[in-house]
Design goal:
Elements: H1 11-36, H2 45-79, H3 81-103
């Protein structure tokens, strides 16, 4: 039996969160620049536009890679469900052991 949760997290909310996170990064950079004594008004608009375009392209590539990786992982898990379950169990036990030792 297979369950599909396509609408568990909408793409719109994920994109909105990404935009909010990027805006926070920009605000942080502006604050850092002011603290360091740099003047953001000294930057040329065409330089900022080209950097923004490069950032958008990199975000698009990261999104494509993430989707491709998730699809390949999904295919592997569907092709070999018991092996995937075994690996998940082994990694969970390993993580529990490591975290349990750190607490002591």
């Amino acid at each position: 039996m297979e369950l599909y949760y396509k609408d568990l997290i909408s793409e719109e909310s994920s994109l909105e969160k990404l935009v909010d996170d990027l805006m926070r990064v920009v605000q942080g950079v502006e604050e850092l620049a002011h603290a360091a004594g740099a003047n953001p008004e000294d930057f040329r608009p065409e330089e900022l536009t080209s950097r923004l375009a490069r950032l958008k392209e990199r975000c698009r590539r990261v999104k494509e890679r993430t989707v491709a990786t998730a699809q390949s992982a999904d295919k592997i898990v569907r092709d070999h469900p018991y092996a995937a379950l075994g690996w998940a169990l082994a990694l969970g036990l390993l993580a529990g052991t490591v975290l349990g030792r750190r607490r002591d």
